[in-house]
Amino acid sequence: MKWWMIIAVAATMFTVAGCSNDSTDESEPTNTEQDAETMEEESEENAAELPFTHPLTGMKSEYEAKNRPVAVMINNHPAARPQTGLVDADVMYEVLAEGEMTRFVAIFHSTLPEEVGPVRSAREYHIELVNGYDAAFVTHGWSPGAEQQLRAGRTDYLSGLQYDGSLFQRSSDRRAPHNSYITFENIKKGIEQEGYEWEAEVTPLTFYTNDDIQVVGNAASEVVINYLNRNEVTYSYDETTGMYHRFNGEMQTVDYKTDEPLEAANLFIVETGHRVVDDAGRREINLTEGGRGLLIQSGIANEVMWKNIDGKILPVDENENEMPLKPGLTWINIVPSSPGMDESVTYN
């Protein structure tokens, strides 16, 4: 359980205990209320005193993650849900593949889950997103263009086409192509086997500190994205944790193994040019020109711009200054500029 959830649960327990005593003078804090306040203050102080900050989440930590980021191509077909390991990602991209179905590029750095999947095939624009974090790329299959780029050495990668049945394992409770999984033990083994670097210094993103997060903007307790009016994604704000929960339709995004719900600190919706380029419905997606964006944090939405900064899709203000993120997972939804955010995104 993350530290801000511990604070919220502790505060709730002590408040309920205090309210159950009818003889207490409400004008003065009870001992239990004082204890809850003390616990919260101590938890915040302890978090502030932790020696390291994870560069892609802004979260304080007792340890320094010295590994390079690892990006995994994750299947989002209904037959692949719920997925395994997504709750441990630092940054997540959600982008259309063929038709109206999206796929995820999950970037892991601060926490490496025991297992992740189902792993699916890559497109050229996925490689662009991976290279923004200098991540090792884990994929199971590719489009012709992505195969050409990967075989040419554009990024370090592990392919399930090469290691199916060895580094990658098939789950017996799902059918192919929705059942390919890999452990992080095997990811590290494969990276070392291929002669790629495992350790790296990671350029940090820009984050608010816990006491200066801005909450000025339009209320956004529920956010709905319709990908081509067929694939609906919903985010619901939890005031207790300060995080957003994600849903595909009515199905909440949780971890397949633990049932832990995914919690996003930042929702960043960006509008980009999409173009279908072949009979299979594959797309070219413009990830370089920048454009309109919607940055949503702490139940508040703000219209911003997005910019490709060293390969990363990041929010910027009207002066093209990078805007800070709230510590935690950042989920980036890339939507087509036609029909655009005005038609495909709603929030209250």
From TrEMBL:
Keyword Signal on entry: yes
Classification via PROSITE patterns: PROKAR_LIPOPROTEIN
Signal sequence region: 1-19
Acidic residues composition-biased segments: 23-47
Alphabetical UniProt keywords: Signal
InterPro entries from the UniProt entry: DUF3048_C (IPR035328), DUF3048_N (IPR021416), YerB-like_sf (IPR023158)
Domain of life of the native organism: Bacteria
Positions of the UniProt region annotated as Disordered: 19-51
Residues covered by the DUF3048 domain: 56-196, 223-332
Protein name: Lipoprotein YerB
Lineage of the species this protein comes from: Bacteria, Bacillati, Bacillota, Bacilli, Bacillales
